[in-house]
Amino acid sequence: MGGTSVWFGWLALALAMTCRSISGFLLEGSPSSFAQFPRWVPGANGSLEFEFLTQEPSGLFLYTDDGGSYEFFEVKLIEGSVRLHYNLGGGARLLTVGRGLNDGRWHRVKVSRRHDKTQLTVDGVSEFRSAKALDHEFGSPASNSFVYVGGLPELVSRQVGARLTLPVVTLEPRFAGQIRQLVYTGVDGIPRTQDMVASQGVWMEGRHGDCDQHDPCMNGGRCYSSGHGPLCDCSLVNYEGPNCEKERPSEEATFRGREYLWWDLRRIGGQPLASQHDQLSLSFKTRHPAGVLFFTGHGKDYVNVALREGGVLVTLDMGGDPLKVTVRPDKVRFDDNQWHTVTVHRTVKEINGHTSFCTLSVSVDGLYTEKGTTAGPFSQLSSSRIHLAGADVPALLPGAETRSNFVGCLRKVEYRADSVRLDLIRMAREGNPLLHVSGKLDFMCLEVEAGDPVSFTTQESYLDGPENGVVKFTRPDAVLVLPSWEAPRQGSISFKMRTTEANGLLMFNSGSVSSQGDFFALELLEGHIYLHLNLGSGSRKVKATNRRVDDGWWHEVTLNRDSQAGRITVDEGANDFTTPGDSHQLDLDGALYVGGAGNGINVPPELWSGRLGLGYVGCMRDLVINGQAADLASYAKKQDSGSIVRFCHSDGGSCSSSPCLHSGECKAGWGRFICDCSHTSYVGPTCGKNAATLHFDGSQYVRVTAGEESSTQAEDIAFRFRTNRPVGLLLTTTSGVSSDKLELALQSGRLRLTVKLGDRDKVMYAGNGLNDQQWHSVKLTRRATQISLQTDKDPPTIEHTMGRHSILEYRDIHIGMVSSNTSTSWRPSSTFLAPSSTLSSTPLASSASSSSSPSQVPVPAFIGEMQSFYMNGNYLFEMARSGHVDRLEVTATFTKGPQVIHHPVTFKSKSAFVALPQLKAYASTNIYFQFKTLEPTGLIMYNGGKGHDFLALELVNGHIHLVFNLGSHPVKVRDNNKVALNDNKWHVVTVSRPSPRQHTLMVDDNIATATNGAGDENLDLQGFLYLGGVPPEMYTSLPRHVMSKTGFEGCLASLDLNGEAPDPAGKDVPIISNRVFAGCDGPSTKCHRNACANGGTCVQQWNSYSCNCDMTSYTGPTCSDESTAYEFGRGTGIMSFKYPQGRWPDSRRDLLAVGFMTQQEDAVVLRLDSANSNDYMELEIVDGNIFMVYNMGTEDHPIGDVTTKVNDGLYHVVRFIRTGPNATIQIDDYKVFSKNPSGHQLSVFNAQSHLQIGGRRSRRSTDIERPFMGVMSGLVLNGEHPLDLAAERDPRLEVEGDVHLLLRLPRGLPSEGRQTEFNPWQRTPPLPGPSPGEGDDLVFSGAGSGCDMDDEDECIPVFDTGSGDDLITPVYIPPTLPPISKPPPHAFIPDVDVGGSRQPCDDEEDCYIGSGSGEFNTDGGVMPDGDSGGDDIEVEFPVTNHPMLAPDVIHSEEHEPTHYNKNKDPGSGPTTTGSTLAFTSSSTTSTTSPPTRPPMKGSNTKPTATSYPPSLPQPSPPTYDYYDEYTDFTEEEFPKKPTVIKEDPPDLHSEAAGGVALIISIIAGALIIIILIILLVLKFKGRQDGNYKVDQTKNYEGIPTMPTPMINGQGNGNIKPGDRRPVKKQSKDVKEWYV
Q1: Interatomic CA distance for residues 273 and 93, integer angstroms
Q2: How high is the pLDDT of residue 644?
Q3: CB–CB of 1226/1214 below 8 Å?
Q4: 75, 83 in Cβ contact below 8 A?
Q5: How far apart are alpha carbons 1036 and 1031 in whole angstroms?
Q6: Is the pLDDT of residue 791 over 80?
Q7: What is the distance between the alpha carbons of residues 596 and 922, in angstroms, rounded to a whole number?
Q8: CB–CB of 612/603 below 8 Å?
């Protein structure tokens, strides 16, 4: 009553005003401005017209209606165009005329009616539309409202529900501008100018407002005048404050799935909002993949915006063809709990009077945009309903693609329909009368999970859609562990579930120890939910559903129990039950398992899904136990975060991509695909692995021991077999306490199944002619008394057993035959019907009979092959092959089939990697893959975890290392293969976890096992699973037990990660770095960038290539093997090499490479002197820096690197190149330093004659000056290999003092107080310029040296730049890793017949191949290759880093030559440390007089032991390392490369030593005489200048250019020792030796 009285009072006051004609007036456009005029009653042929002037693009001109029924007229300005929106009973219509009318000029608008036609005219331009209606009259004079110009009074706006036909008119922006000449024309056709009856914010025409003089509004705010000066309207901009100077904070709200905003104009009788153009903009943040975001519509017209499967889906229908637009980029989801902004644009363009064209554009974050179009007989979108974030029943919203409300945060939600602008969250907060709030809404963004405790506890679970606490079980073995259900007398459990898989254990809780079999369980079988309940006096099984629930929809399950009575309800269907017996109390203990049963949990026999190992795969939410919500998400985070995700959707696995290989049958599961491989010879998640195949010869078997008597009501058995025998025992069970039996055998080529439960037998037959030596599949399924037997793809035979018994008791399962040592009872009289029985003539493929039979014969053992043996969730043969031998006894023989490779991927760089989703290995581990590579080291797989937990697989020195930590201490397992695996052949790796504390690593067919001590049993991983390596920045943060510092380079294939088979190069992989390619590209036969390691030079040949390793300090086919290495001890020692008399080469170009490690600050590494001049080169260490000093006859030229210390005990490589007086030097991969002396310089090193290694000794002194102490390896000077010659006892090379041959490089020289980690290369940033192999001259063609010219001047050396000058072009040597370790040449070559066919050497070139070839050559002992296949030599291979074992140090002292003697003491020979080498018989012979060997048979030989010096311990190679304390895990505990023993070796004295000393004395005397003669000659012959002439009358043996062989040494490439080609006499004055 109060509001009505105020209304009439205001109206009376307005009417009392003196009415006067208004020629024109100004509307200020404030939030309260309006002008009111008399009612307009046009009848059927009236009109209304006015003139306006404005500069604003939008605003309401006038509005009038029929008083709240359905007729109205609305005229407004929209973006400079005049829009007429009206309804005369035939539905709302729109007319639009004009463009750019907000130009500050006067324009005339006229609205006229003539019966069913309505016309809009603007400045003489007209548009009309006809509408059919029962009555063409517009309202009535009694009910029609006033005509409101510029806006509506606030009082009318507040009463929208009772007085306005079009309520949304109150949301239109008010008109700001001038209006004049408002004229009505009625039924009589006479135009009448109207007088204003009320107004607010209106000024007379000609008066200037306050805003004309001063406009204080900022940021687009509208200024209007008032009695107190100018004011600002900020309602249409995102600013606030008196002058719109402050940015308005974004409106936010939190929705939890129960709250939403809505309006419905139908409830207040209002007409819908109509628009031709819409725009929706909102920002959201959520973890849920599905939910309604926004909906607006009227009748069949609608726009629905929702989240679906992590993407944005917009559906539109305006009466034409429905339109759907989805924004869901690959590898991008919007349910990641980050803010995302969605913008939806809809525009309509009228093509003709009957058809319009609609364009819909959807954009997310401005990055992902999709568009769609549709056409139809529409012109507008009508909206009477708006919903934000959901509805009461979201599935009933038109166009609904989700059944969920939105869960998360929304902010800045703005909907614009033509000129109407709705800030929905702001309107809700301010209490707009049109908008309603459902639920309790928080106008701020809160974390939804913190506000709503929702729970489910499984290992793999998701949160989904609008609901909270949703978890998804993604794998059958996923289990969550909750506290026990406390419900002794009464209790309740409720939850919601969603899946498309038909079987799975939902919940299980066992009884206490003192209970009488109490337990509670819920399981899903064949799409139906079953309740199992036992109070100790009997079990009750209740089928809770009448229709299947594996339909992918949410279903609610509720269980209420009170004593013995209870009710279980699924959706709307309820089932009452009563437990049997007299027990009223449920005594549960232990954990409540959700989603399955934990490992080792014994479940009752009537719980079929638990017995069969069928875990639940699907989603759960809203778990409430005894009225208390359980937070499943928090349980999942603590237990198995890898298998539990925060949303619930069914994507992730589809059969559309044909993922099953080898004709496997694909079946779609929930978020996964399932491959049925039972009819193939393969197993694995994609049927990609060769099935383990066992051969039975009639005396072999497989026995599975359960450990104790087992009782089951259900079995799933499947396997394949082939045989040519018509009879044979395939499978049988035995028991120690019962006569129960399940027996499957062949009889007359048919399958016979015998099932004995209690005292009754059931016999079934299936198949026919199965002994055809073809593979046949068998599938046996039993559920209580129902049995199904199927062969191949024939229809199954289904029968029922006799009697009341349904439980099968057994202890052992026998396959192939019953072993004689079984402890259970088995009747050997297990029989078949005799062949003469009537069954032989039965034409049917299957039949059934009772236990009686006319005659019986014993069951013979099976002869044939079986594979893919599956029983109750376990592949038994695969378990046996993987080392799960706790309960398996296998005497049958595993056979090998063809190797199968699928989904191969190539890592073409050590920095390449792939990131996969986290490895799901919380309680069990089963990893399988294949690899091949040529690289000895690299990280293959790594997944970090919580705390100390991690898992890594790496290749170390050619062997697989498994390193992991379950939280208490690290464990390392190394494969026990006898040969290195980097042989470019496919190898199979399987990592398994048979029990919580047992871990196995199987590589090919060799198994290594580790047992984890007490501590954690679960592997808590998190983050990505990296393959092939990790990002470069991660290597420094890897656990210190992981040795790899670079990635894996090679091929990986056939990946199987705990039942998942991802494609590492597939499109769904989260991260793929560069240099990762699908497929496996083997090593190229053409030279390529990575053909040669350690900077070796690739030499292209016709169908292959070779590597020149002279400038690397390494050797081998790919420059990846260690070269010959010597240790120079503290007792000082030196090597001397002298060129043959008269064969001293002159050199214009010198090439030198040497590797070394030392801790000296000052030493001479080597020195080369001239025979007849002062020319020399000296490589020395000064203050820890390396220098080369050379003199070609003028002055000393020093060159070195003062920025790099080389006395750090690590391995360094020095490369020196001299061309004339110019030179370059480089250490490792550091900067190349060059020397270019100025002035007149000589260029030829004349008569190179004497090379000293490890120090220098002057001609007149016996003392060694500045001796070198350390290790030197791979010395190459101008193609010569002096260290190789020393190892081969070349007479031209003399070794003196404390110098010892090493069989392998140490990891580093030990220093006081620390353990030096060996790294052969110091890492530096790459040098500027092209990459190796790009634009350089390091690759050349030809075999061997490639030089066939007689004149060396015409032969281009390898490193020649072709410039023709004497400048040195630096050669870039790329950094590499340590090479694969191979033994260098040994000191002895026995005269033994390796392989049984080789004759003793009588020709030097037949005894061994040249240095650098990678062969293991000795003078007195032999290291046979691992695959030599000889019968005469047997080698022991303990677990070491290299397949060939050898002593660490071989001293240089001579040993007495000894002829073959079968009783020779095995301790004689080289002194060895740290390894064991055993031959069939030891022998040490002289290479000059090979004896005759007696024949030997390898079958009777036995390895002999090798004696060790007292000071050196014998090795004890373990198969794994185990560490009791986490903090005690040190580098010494890992397998390491043997280090050099620094103790002085014992002196060895013999008669041979005295003889050698005498010979040396004679040679020394002769040399002194020769030197004196040479000095006399030189005294009379002066030194010649740079143009040194050689006596051309002498015949010189040709020395090839690159490399240069020793005179009696070994050559590289195709040049053999003794292959001497005469060189033509020189035609030039300068004799140059290119090397």
Answers
A1: 11
A2: 58
A3: yes
A4: yes
A5: 10
A6: yes
A7: 14
A8: no
Distance CA(1486)–CA(1390), nearest Å, equals 7
Q: Is pLDDT at 9 greater than 50 in this prediction?
A: no
- In the numeric block, the tokens 């797989």 are attached to 941
Is the C-alpha dihedral spanning 847, 852, 857, 860 positive or negative?
Answer: positive
Contacts of 396 (CB under 8 A, 6+ apart): none
Average pLDDT value for the chain: 75
Identify the H or E element spanning 1580. helix 1551-1580
What is the Cα–Cα distance from 729 to 860, expressed in whole angstroms?
A: 6
Closest CA to 1303 of 1325, 1273, 1328: 1273
* CB within 8 Å of 1572: residues ≥ 6 apart: none
221 and 231 Cβ atoms separated by less than 8 Å? no
Give residue 1258's region: left, alpha or beta (phi > 0; psi -120 to 50).
beta
The SS3 call for residue 396 is helix
Three-state DSSP class for residue 1624? coil
Has residue 458 got a pLDDT over 90?
A: no
**Buried/exposed 96-108: b ≥16 CB within 10 Å, e otherwise:** bbbeebbeeeebe
Q: How far is CA 773 from CA 863, 997, 1329, in A?
A: 11, 42, 66
Other C-beta atoms lying within 10 Å of the C-beta of residue 252: 19
What does each C-alpha distance from 447 to 440, 999, 1316 come to in angstroms? 15, 41, 51
Per the rule left: phi > 0, alpha: psi between -120 and 50, beta: everything else, 690 is: beta
List, in order, residues 6 or more apart from 1045 with CB less than 8 Å away: 1035, 1319, 1377
Residues with Cβ within 8 Å of 717's Cβ and at least 6 positions away in sequence, in order, are 731, 744, 778, 779, 780, 781, 870, 871, 872
Rounded Cα gap, residues 388 and 303, in angstroms? 12
pLDDT band, very low/low/confident/very high, at 1520 (cuts 50, 70, 90)? very low
Question: What pLDDT sits at residue 1060?
Answer: 82
Does residue 964 register a pLDDT over 60? yes
Phi-psi category of 1070—alpha, beta or left, where left has phi over 0 and alpha has psi -120 to 50? alpha
pLDDT single digits (tens) 612-646: 888 888 888 878 888 888 877 777 777 765 565 65
Pairing of strands 856-858, 831-833: antiparallel
- Dist CA 960 CA 936 (whole Å): 10
1080 contacts: CB under 8 Å, gap ≥ 6:
901, 904, 905, 906, 932, 1051, 1053
- DSSP label at residue 1043: -
Kindly state the helix (H) or strand (E) to which residue 12 belongs, with its residue range: helix 2-16
pLDDT at residue 1418 greater than cutoff 90: no
Closest CA to 30 of 246, 272, 228: 228
Written as six digits, the tokens of 629 are 């919500």
When mean pLDDT is compared over 223-227, 1112-1116, 1377-1381, the highest value belongs to: 1112-1116
Please report which confidence band the pLDDT of residue 242 belongs to, taking 50, 70 and 90 as the band edges. Answer: confident
Measured distance between the N- and C-terminal CA atoms of the chain, rounded to whole angstroms = 116
**Bridge partners of residue 325, in order along the sequence:** 314
Q: Is residue 463 pLDDT above 60, yes or no?
A: no
Distance of CA 519 to the CA centre of its chain: 41
| pLDDT over threshold 90, residue 1315 | no
Amino acid symbol at 773: Q
Dump strand ranges (E) for 830-974. Answer: 831-833, 848-849, 856-858, 863-871, 874-875, 888-890, 893-895, 905-907, 914-916, 926-932, 938-945, 950-956, 959-965, 970-974
pLDDT at residue number 1560: 83
Distance in angstroms (rounded) separating the CA atoms of residues 1224 and 578: 96
Q: Is 1515 left (phi over 0), alpha (psi -120 to 50) or beta?
A: beta
Residue of 928, 824, 852, 862 lying closest to 701 (CA atoms): 862
